[in-house]
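1st attempt posting a full record on here, be nice pls
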Amino acid sequence: MNSDLSMIARAMEMSNAPLPVAYERATQAIAECDRVDECKSWSDRAAALASYARQADDKTLENYAMRIRSRAIKRAGELLKEFDAKGQRTDLPKPSGGAPTKLTQREVAEAAGMSKDQQVTAIRVANVPTEDFERQVGSENPPTITQLAGQGKKVMPQPVRPAGFAEATKLIGELERFSAFLKDKTPEFILGGMDQFEIADARLTAVSVCEWLQLFIDQSRENVLAAGQRATQKPSKQQQQSDPAPSPPPPPSSGPIGPIDDCAMHLRDLVLRFARAIPAESWATLITELRDELADIERVLEQRRVSMGADHDGG
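the predicted structure (as tokens):
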């Protein structure tokens, strides 16, 4: 290998030197390299040769030097790729016995005198398909190392966005901003700054928004519950018969959410949370207990209603 480098060096001084022959020999020697530090040595000397050629305004020599450097860096990357982050050789079967010394990819690069950036660049150049690499490096205007490394970047696959993703992202932001806006403002304060016609228009808009948000709240609960059911194991036929069927979302209310709706919403959330926390076979028992409790609540409320009526008649 040193003789090949010497031949390239002599070409800097002798215009009639067999540069193509020296390049072919260098190419063969680099292909046979089995040490990263040898590849780095080729790369460093070729970089120095290219710098000299640029100063001498020798484009032919510069291109040959760039080709040699590209091949040396690519070979270094190929050798580095044989080691993973855990120090395992990726090109050899796992040893059946013993515990050989492990070197990580970074440790191998450091031992060869390569910086982290040089290591990454070599890996990226090695990622360029061989056919593309050979076509470009062998052209009249070979690419730079930066250009080759750019082609070898692994493009991370973009996640498939569901329909409505952009709108959902916008809604989340709008709700957060609206919530922050209302944090220190009462309806009375806002109404005080409106004319009567503005109040009427704003109320109609608010009712429409409340209807949509109520539907969103109901359907989001069903969505979360369905996702929880899908995450569990498929229930048996007996469990399926005892599982309570999900109730359809209630129709949108004709006005803003009142205290009764708010109470029903909180009760529904509480029950669904408990349902997710217990086995499916216990849901029937839960429903029975809830019905008993609701019956007791109904009796208590009826007694209070009668008592309040009696007090009113007596007064």
